[in-house]
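Objective 1b: paired records.
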Amino acid sequence: MTADVAVIVVTYNSAAYIRSCLDSVCSQGSELKLQIVVVDNASTDETTRIIRGEYPDVELLKSEENLGFARGVNFGAQHGDAEFILLLNPDARVSEGAIDKLVRFARTNPEYGVYGGRALKGDGSLEPSSCWAFPTLWSMAMFSCGLSTLFPGSRWLNPERMPQWERDTIREVGFVSGCFLLVTVEFWKQLGGLDERYFMYGEDADFGLRARAAGYRSVICPEATVTHEIGASSATKGSKLRLLFRGKATLIRTHWRGGGRSVALFFLVAGAWLRASLAKVGMTFRGRSAEGWRELWQTRREWIAGY
């Protein structure tokens, strides 16, 4: 192996923030040898020019088409030659020493399998989306009737978000977000990487479920911090919601069985209907645009089928 960690970054029109991301990795002052691999998903902005011109040590793999996140990560991982693989979003910045701390924790605690850190917003406040609990029929029911959105801070009504935990202690979680996720190359190959059916959203939850089925667990190491401006690397409005819900539907269809699968899909559609109906009369949920929810409802037959 030529490196300790292969850092895989998948970009798509990421010129606005790729410098910040790569600078944070290159300035780690790490005791580890890092290999940085960027997979560009056919960006039409200055992303590749910036990387080629300013980061000669970064391995740039330019795709002629938008592979999506899962395929892009797998493509980059094939070019990695290291003990660990670290997935990092292009709109994220790793804090000084964060990679060392996460790798040290993983080496000391090999019984887990999937490792993540603590994510912060640009103002230093907590960004809770670094990890989630797995969806259950209860959590889906709370989504369908809107209670998880009306009471986001309730651990009973919004359990997937794991509110009231500041991500400041070592804790097992359902799954770690692909924004900042570390695994050994050996374990990555054992699971076959990310499921490439997922274009974007849902692939990290699927990976966490497959890891659990293989006898491993996901864990957060709070000492390893990353700043993540959530959504900067995502699609917007209706297109983002369609991708998100298509990923959710695929996850349910893949990992749920029998009547539970049908009920969970019903709850997913019911939750979309409720928000679209309220948006129609001028109400919004958690800042989502009215147009986005209405578009989501109108395209339900497309995304409920999954990928």
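Objective 1b, second protein:
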Amino acid sequence: MTKWPAAFARFWYQFLVGDTPELAIGVALIVGASWALSRTVGAAPFWFGPVAVVALLSVSLRRGASRRGG
């Protein structure tokens, strides 16, 4: 019975973080920044999420290409 929580935590870590923890951290930062902007501005910043995700994806792709030597 004590192995189940550890296996459950390992599964969710692998599912959410996987091989690139910087993407998981980036998504968490995007969600937090969106929440902060919605509290500050008073309206949901519908433009911030897609722009931030595209920026995060481009940084991730650039890092992946540089790791492979391309």
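Residues 21-41 form the longest helix (21 residues). The two ends are 47 Å apart (CA to CA).
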